Each structure stands twice: as structure tokens, then as C-alpha cells.
Amino acid sequence: MRRKPEHQAGSSDPVNANKKRAERPADASARQSYSSILINLGKYLLLIVIIPPFLNYASLQREGQMLLPKDGQMVDVGLGQKLHLLCKGRGKPAVILDAPTGMSSDVWIHVQEKLSSLTKVCTYDRMGLGFSKRLMQNETTGTEKVWGASTTGRMVDDLHRLLQAAGIATPFMLVGSELGALNSRFYSHIHDAQVSDLVLIDPIPEDIFEEDQWKEYWYGKLLPSLQARQFSAATGLSRLLIILGAIEPLLKGENVSEEVIQRQKYLLSNPAHQSSAVDEHYFMNESVAQVGDITKFKPLSSRISVSMLTGDSFDEQMPQHLNQMVAEHQKRFLKESYPSANHVHIKGADRRMIYKKPSAISQHLWKLVSQRQAGPQSE
């Protein structure tokens, strides 16, 4: 009985073979189309990642020269460091304004403009903020061996060399807000012969960072938001959001010049400025510890008048229990550190009073300057 011949290897059904040959080009075409889509998508993503930071960097280089305040000056304070200083008006005592944590000197524009008709008023940018460039990591001033970068001790050393280099007459009046208040306190205790009056606007008490709830807010909520802003500036996203109107300058309104508004946009897009703002917040705990140590080591001279200005709350955007906590610590700190100080309450204000309630600050400073000018120190 004969067996049926087996199908020989290599043989195929002509119909199926033709069908497979027809499918192969279709599969290849689909794979090629899919690969093309991936490649194009990769190109677009690459453009998105590279182009905005590049354009932002190019714009920052141009704006850094154009937006430098015309009346300002870059002062060589020695040791490879230059700080931006802006003085207006004439007279004595000079008033030195130190900005809040992570902010440039522009926040003082209203106060400086008003008070400069009475006396000389100076603002400055701390290292890394505004137009005071930050030293590179391989550069050094030597002071970080004693005081870490972005801490009060280092800032006061910078300020002391700045005022000496600029030839600011002493004694002068020191006015500081938040971190600026810490700096002003530190300076007044160390260089008491150079200071006539100390004005603290919403100062941060040293022992506030002993509170777990405050540390959780500061390092768990506030700092991450600033780090996100820094990342946004570094990637060029901030500039895009400013163009789209999603981010607005801090200072705005009819009384704010277009030049100041453009400077605020420049700083929002500047990763170097935002990085320094993050560092000032990050090292705040160390700064308050430095001030606490120095005030115990060297009490304030009795001839320096002290006043503290606070609003209804420290920050109206903070939870109420945290505002109450800050207020209690501020009162206790003032009673223990400066018992003879004058505590002034600004109704309807918080820590933004510098640019939202500038007239209240100007009135208080005007009164203090007038009193000094009427006395023997004005001669």
C-alpha cells in the first residue's frame, strides 16, 4: 500500500506565499511610520528641553545690562566681590534699607522715594540677589571660614565692607525686614558706634524655629515652592509663563514704573537670583542662631533707639495658628531683647507692608529722621 508523498521542505502554497509577500511591505511600512513618529516626537521634546533655557539665558544676558538701575552703582567691596548699591537724596542720618528674605532692593522703591526728600536713603542687593552677582564655588572671600554663605554673619560682613567702600557717613539708621531685620540686629550689636537707630519690620524671632509646626511650614511648604520657582526659571518656563500672564511681578500698579516691572520679570526668570533666594530661606535656621549668639555675647548699646513694626498678621496667606505663633514669639523676643523698644502696629498689614503699605513705614522713618536732625547729631 502506497504512502502519500510528504510535503517537501521549502515548498509552499502559492496562494499563501503571495499573501505573505503582500503583508510584509505593509508591516514594514507600519513599523517605519511608528519609528518616524517616535523620532519626530523626540525632536520636538528635545527642542522643548533645549530651546527655552537657551533663549532665556540669551535674554538674561541682554537684560542684565539694560535693566541695571541708572542711579545705582556696582561697589567693589574687596575680596573679589561687587555689590549693587542705590542711594537717593542728601542729608544725615543716612537710612540703610535691608530687604526681606530672598528679595531684591526694588521692594523699597516707594519708601526710598518718599524718604529721599528728607535725607539720604540707600538700598542694596545682597550677594546673589538682584544685580549683586554671586561668587563662583571656586572663589572665596575667606569669611565663610567663620560664617557660612547665605547666612546673616556673612551678609553683615558684606554690608559693613559695602558701606565703608561707599563712604556712607555714620551714624546711620538701619531698617530691615524679616532676614533684613536679623542682619540689622547683628550689625547693630557688632558695629554699635555706626548705628543711631534700629528699625525692625516683621522680624523673625530666634526661637521660632524651635517650633515643629513652624519648621514644617518653612521647610516643608515654603522652601519647596521656592525650589520649584528656581527650577522653573532654570528651564525657561518662568519666562514663558510671564509672557502668557500666568506669573505676575511682585510690584505692579500705577505708581510702579515700567522699568521696575521689567526688572521684576527679569529676576523671576533669573535662576541665579532664584537660587540665592532659596539659599537664604534654607539657611534661615542658621542665621537666627547666629543672631541669638551675638546678642548674648554683645548687648545692644543703650544709645541706639529700637522700634518694631508689625501688622495684623505676619503673613495673611499663612494659617491663623502660625500667625498667632509668630506674634507671640515677636512680643516675647522684643520684651527680652529690647525692653525699651517702641512697638508700632500697622493696621491691615502683614509682611508685605513694605510695598503694600509703604506710607505707614515712611511716616515712622520720617519721624525718626526728623528727631535726629533736630538733635545735636545732625550737626
TrEMBL record:
The chain positions of domain AB hydrolase-1 read: 102-218
Q: Name one Pfam family in it.
A: Abhydrolase_1
Transmembrane recorded as keyword: yes
- List where this protein forms a coiled coil: none
UniProt-annotated stretches for the region Disordered = 1-27
Record's InterPro entries? AB_hydrolase_1 (IPR000073), AB_hydrolase_fold (IPR029058)
Q: Which domain of life is it from?
A: Eukaryota
Q: Which UniProt keywords apply?
A: Membrane, Transmembrane, Transmembrane helix
Entry keyword annotation includes Iron: no
Q: Which residues cross the membrane?
A: 41-60
Q: What's the protein here called?
A: AB hydrolase-1 domain-containing protein
